[in-house]
Design a protein that fits this description.
Elements lengths: L8 H11 L1 H13 L3 H28 L4 H6 L2 H9 L7 H18 L2 E11 L2 E10 L6 H17 L3 E8 L7 E4 L15 E4 L11 E6 L2 E6 L8 E4 L13 E3 L2 E3 L6 E3 L5 E3 L16 E4 L2 E6 L9
Parallel strand pairs: 2-3
Antiparallel strand pairs: 1-2, 3-4, 5-14, 6-7, 7-8, 9-10, 10-11, 11-12, 13-14
Helix pairs in contact: 2-3, 6-7
Amino acid sequence: MADRPEESPKASDEDAQWRTAGDRIQTLLDSCAASGPAAHERAQQLVREVVGLYGAGLERIMRGGDPGLAERLATDDLVASLLLVHGLHPHDVRRRVSDALDRVRPYLGSHGGDVDLLDITDGVDGQTVRLAFQGSCKSCPSSAVTLELAVEDAVRAAAPEVSTIEVVTASTGVAPGVISAESLMAHVKSNGHAVDWHPVPEVAEVTPGEVAGFLVGGTTMLACRVDGTAPPLAYRDRCPVCDDSLAGATLRGALLECPRCHSRFDVAHAGAGVGVDVDVGVGANLEPLPLLYRDGVLSVALRDQAMGAPA
């Protein structure tokens, strides 16, 4: 992750604007519906004509350019999404899913885990991606965060034709369940609340051994870095043992110590409690927050605090 260039604030704002363009277009179409069926149909036809026009232009660019042009265009997230809409992306679904997993692999590795792409199969309703999580990701409380936010976000953006993500337990080869890609995030969107990605480029400045607090989207986030080669890690600012803030916590190696109850947590393995009384139960783990580069900008995924930690 560290070798991906950071974008200027202006570029970041422009990317954020285009990422929400689809929602704004749909809102405009819905408002046209209030004027009657005829106005709604004209608005929809206008969108189809515009999409068809730029699609035809993209096709000429892709097929008339130099051999390396397609590869260069595919590295831009916005352009790549438009190429996908028109079936012009130069990479097949396996290559795109593999590249997407490579982008989130540093995050998984920072929590002592990894993910393997087992295979991609065709089905009646679309394609199914089979993944196997390894290390901390296959058993710790952060696995839900990793799957629902990091992996789902990356795979769906890279390969919208994927209809199902199947998670296979690496040690047994038995699939504990199949998650529909369409409904994967549904339970975090109840009551109008959804998971949001917030740019936090300042977190990249956290130095090895440092613990810093950041207020992001109304949530206090704790960020730390174990060493100079590992990416920064992010956790919600709450000690699961004493239920208090971790402000003033110290980091020794990979162990974060609560300044109040002195409980220790392994930040390199999803914030797992170390030497915590068994009566505390599985809740004795910090709540990890996915911290990934999106469009070249370090961003954190947050859900409404009232919704609680992932199951």
